Every structure is written in structure tokens, then in C-alpha cells.
Amino acid sequence: HPILGYDVDPRGFRLVVNEAEAVRVRAIFELYLEHESLLPVVQELERRGWVNKRWTTRKGRERGGQPFERTSLYRLLTNVAYIGKVRYKDEVHDGEHPAIVDLAVFQRVQALLQRNGQTRGAPVRNKFGALLKGLLRCVPCGCAMTPSHTTRNGTKRYRYYVCSSAQKRGWDTCPSKSIPAAQIEEFVVGQIKCIGQDQALLREVLAQARKQDAARTGELEAEQRGLEKDLARWHAELRKLSGQLRPGDDNGSIITRLADLQERIGLVEGRMRKVREQIQTVQQQLLDEEETALALSVFDPVWDALTPREQAHVIGLLVERVDYDGASGKVSITFHPTGIKALAQQLADQRRKRSA
Length: 356
Ligand SMILES: [Zn+2]
Known about the structure:
Strand 11 and strand 12 form a beta hairpin. The two termini are 50 Å apart. The protein is an alpha+beta fold. The chain has 12 helices and 12 strands. The strands form 4 sheets. It has a 6-stranded mixed beta sheet. A two-stranded antiparallel sheet has the order 1-2. Bound molecules: zinc ion. Zinc ion binds next to helix 5.
């Protein structure tokens, strides 16, 4: 597939820089460095109307141009083509095309992606004990509520979260204004502690997680079928061309095409192995429902034993967003289904270790 930032030279397979797209690619890398997380970047790209590479096939068909999702954004951010390299099977070689992303920027992005992979997308937050930093939103203003505090004699007196729009545009523009940190944090933690006891919520969360796993498996299987089709077609062509080789003749063009086919077949077979591995990984992630419920039911004592830093990590893992509407006084929590599954898995592992 052609990739954003380059066009394929029609006379060959060489990549030539598409300047307008290259500017966007660099901006996308910068956005990731700014947000340190895939989802906010996906949302920003959607807001800007920036989409994946659009191109026309040789038969004149329009392809690509879909909005970015986490997977396609991840693929873009990890594509070594942007630093002038090519990936062949598991090795990276120098390519013949120019880089369009600064190597240092690319490496910083890889380091962040790796770190966030380890913490499953939850950025390391909470240096100052604000559990809901980056999670709490003011519903009427549609903006973040950021942690703040008053001090007296150099010590923290009172912690609160304040609507960033109210701070900029004045108190009377926002019904939420500010909320005491202890009160809302306690509420959110209370809700989290309930997860293990709330069988209905647990079932819903697990069903969501399974749906995501099934969708991912479906995508991978569709890719697998596409690859199998390509492979069958190329093998057929390979057999046909081999039959056309005549000893003594100049078989130059046939041999060139055969070599090209063999290279393509090698690449596709490599990708198929990867896809099979990924399908297996997703299926292994499917947790036994009972085990999960059991693990989460002991969450309460576990929570109290955590350090504030660990608590913040757990909240980042579990909670996607906390919405506060000052007009109605309503607080609602949106959970990460995958985060709950990840936490349940950690707790289940701890239980197994303890009982072993
Ligand atoms: Zn507000």
C-alpha cells in the first residue's frame, strides 16, 4: 500500500515525497509527543479531518482515505519508511527513498509507544497526588478540569479541580466552576471498589471486552483471507511462468517477473505468520469470566494496600473519563473495558502467585 507522505513513482516501485502529506506526517508525530497517547491524537485528527493515505489503483479505483483509528495511527507511528528505511521480514535496511521524519523524533515516539504499551496506554501521571488529573471533564464547557490547590505557610491546604474554561472566561460562564478534590476522588474510588461486587456491571464490561477481542480477531482473519488469496494468485502465476521457460531462449523478462513474484510471496508468508501469532495472542487474552469475577471481588483490600502512585496507575488503567456537570451535580464515569480486563488479569496473577 502507498503510505501517507509518499507517492509511488509510476515508472517503478520507488517512493517519492509528497510534500503536502509529509507536513501532516510530521505534525502527527508531534501530536503524539504532545499527547503521549494514541486516542487523543485520533480525536484531534478526526477534528482536523485528516485521514489515511488516499490513492488511485492502476485500474482507476479510489482507495484509502479512512479516518484514523488507534491501529492505523500506531502503524503510521511505527513505520520505519518515515526515517528512510525499509522493513524486510524482521530486518530493517536502508531504503532508497528520503526520510521525512527526524530520527530523534521517531525514536522518542517509539520509546513512548513502548512505555505506554507496558502501562497499557495509561500515561504515568499523578506526581502531586491528583488522582483524576487528565481524566476529569467539565460537561457544560466540554473541557478539562485541572488539579489545583491553595497553600498556607508553604503547605498544601485544600486540593480542588477547576474548570479550565471557567478560569479563562470567568466564573459566571460555567456552572461547574470547581469541585473539592477529596470529594470527587472518593466517589470515583468508591465506584471502582464496587466493580467487583456489581455482577451486572462486570458482565457488561466483560462482554464489551470480548466484543473488542472478537472484532480484532475478525479484522485479522479478514486480512489472513486477503493474504491467502494473493498467495494463491501469485503461486498460480509462478507455475504458469515456470512452464513458459524455454532452455536456450533469452528468458530475461520471465526471470525478472519470477524473482519479483518470489519476493512478494516471501513477504506475504512472513506477514501471514505474524497475523496467525496475533490471532493466538488475542485468543489467549480472553479471560475466564469466573476467574475475573473472583479476582475483582478482592479488589477492596488490595486497593487500600496500594501506594498513591499505584492507585493513580490503577485509575488510569480503569477509567477513560470522569464527567462532572456542575449544573445538575452529576458525576459519571466511563470505564476502559480493556483496562478492567487487564487489572483483573493482574489481580488473578497475584492470587495465583500467593496461593502457589
Ligand atoms: Zn466548565
